[in-house]
Amino acid sequence: MSNEENWKGLKGWLVLVGIGLIIFPARLAQQSVPLFYNMFTDGSFEYLTTPGTESYHPLWKPLLLFEASYNALLFIGSLFLLYLFFAKHHFFPKGYVIFLFLPLLILPLDLWLASLIPMGEDALDPASLKELARSVVAALIWIPYMFVSKRVKATFVNGKSQPQQEPQQNPGPNFVESKKEEGSL
Q1: Contacts of range 10-13, beta carbons closer than 8 Å, 24 or more positions apart
Q2: Would the pTM of this model clear 0.85, i.e. be above it?
Q3: pLDDT beyond 80 at 175
């Protein structure tokens, strides 16, 4: 068995990546669906976004729609990454890096936007800081792993087009005969 064959497969540290990918959409749905469902069905959204109400602020609507859209995209993206992971598709490492890097941009932006709305409580609550810290730690561990791991390079190869090789021309007898006719042999 070649050395590269030893590295192929969803084994080693990739097991942890797979477990994380399986847990992530379930955890996100468990946290986000009740929150956003209640907000959009119990009148909270209208109360926060309708001018003249006590809690109205012009940034509530864009912030809440941004958060709901971001969570929906994260959920869909995590399911797509799960497919790429188990298909061992060559797009998985790059997609996973983007998936890990995106919260490092979006979470601080979201916290900053939330801090612009006077809510009576700090936008940098412990839950938000914990989520940001979790994203930073995950990115610090798994982004370098996706770039340097031999197992990642050997495993995620499906769907990659193989470079076309030129068929080798065998000079054969016709080549010799044509060169004799030309007088070059």
Answers
A1: 10/85, 10/86, 10/88, 10/155, 11/151, 12/151, 13/145, 13/149, 13/151
A2: no
A3: no
